[in-house]
């Protein structure tokens, strides 16, 4: 498995959960968990399509294995930003930075438009894009509903991620995803690997096609900027460690290692 996804379980892009179904500690209880979640989902407005998706959801063995062995997740022991970038990208920190510069230079209108609207600089967004999916090169191979429900069921994560499991079912209702749509092992969506709950809250239609689509790079980048702005990002202000904008990065990912890696790369992309 590519290292880009081994730290995704550190992403804590969730809001306060609703009342929770009973969590589980063994795979054999997954069906019972789904039954409890189904009642909760229905009471939270999930429709027939979403409930059917829940009924057909399978436990993700990948998600369960990673949650059972958190020490295997990269980023836990990589405090040096350059080492973190190298681990996540599978190359060197400088190679990652060079590629990010190239992606930025090929999409100047997209990044300038997003910065005008939300005040989040291109260097930061192109860094996050690269860290999450290698600029769209690898979006994940775990069915989103399976991953989201499995993560929510696991007692170490429950009930913090239950809201995103229910949100994934709502995205099925809305036709944004299907039961076969694939993403990260925790149910992450599209180019920027949003959890479903945050996509419902912050997703925007930036390309003007009438829908907010996490699998559109333009929509996903703009939505990431929207999320940061709504969580305290100050346009035109520095974002180094200790600043208010650095604190805003915790809305994206609350790992200090991840935040420092974002800043390290972004400052060098524009340098």
UniProtKB/TrEMBL annotation:
PANTHER family: LYTIC MUREIN TRANSGLYCOSYLASE, MEMBRANE-BOUND LYTIC MUREIN TRANSGLYCOSYLASE B. One of its GO terms (molecular function) is peptidoglycan lytic transglycosylase activity. The keyword Transmembrane helix does not apply. Keywords: Signal. The lineage of its organism: Bacteria, Pseudomonadati, Pseudomonadota, Alphaproteobacteria, Rhodobacterales. Residues 30-240 form the Transglycosylase SLT domain. Residues 1-20 form the signal peptide. It comes from the Bacteria. SUPFAM superfamilies: Lysozyme-like. It comes from Primorskyibacter flagellatus. GO terms for biological process: peptidoglycan catabolic process. This is Membrane-bound lytic murein transglycosylase B. Pfam families: SLT_2.
């Amino acid at each position: 498995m590519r290292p880009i996804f081994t730290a995704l379980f550190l992403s804590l892009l969730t809001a306060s959960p609703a009342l929770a179904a009973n969590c589980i500690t063994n795979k054999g209880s997954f069906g019972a968990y789904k039954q409890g979640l189904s009642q909760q989902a229905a009471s939270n407005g999930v429709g027939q399509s979403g409930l059917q998706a829940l009924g057909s959801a399978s436990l993700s063995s990948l998600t369960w294995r990673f949650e059972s062995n958190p020490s295997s997740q990269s980023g836990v022991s990589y405090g040096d930003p350059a080492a973190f970038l190298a681990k996540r990208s599978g190359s060197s920190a400088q190679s990652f930075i060079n590629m990010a510069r190239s992606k930025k230079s090929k999409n100047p209108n997209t990044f300038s438009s997003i910065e005008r609207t939300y005040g989040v600089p291109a260097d930061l967004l192109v860094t996050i894009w690269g860290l999450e999916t290698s600029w769209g090169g690898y979006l994940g191979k775990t069915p989103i509903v399976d991953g989201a429900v499995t993560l929510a069921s696991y007692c170490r994560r429950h009930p913090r991620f239950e809201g995103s499991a229910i949100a994934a079912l709502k995205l099925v209702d809305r036709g944004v995803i299907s039961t076969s749509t694939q993403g990260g092992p925790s149910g992450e969506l599209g180019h920027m690997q949003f959890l479903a709950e945050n996509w419902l809250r912050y997703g925007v239609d930036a390309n003007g096609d009438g829908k907010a689509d996490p699998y559109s790079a333009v929509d996903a980048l703009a939505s990431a900027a929207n999320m940061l702005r709504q969580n305290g990002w100050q346009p035109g202000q520095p974002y180094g460690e200790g600043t208010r904008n650095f604190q805003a990065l915790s809305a994206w990912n609350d790992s200090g290692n991840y935040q420092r890696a974002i800043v390290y790369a972004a400052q060098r992309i524009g340098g």
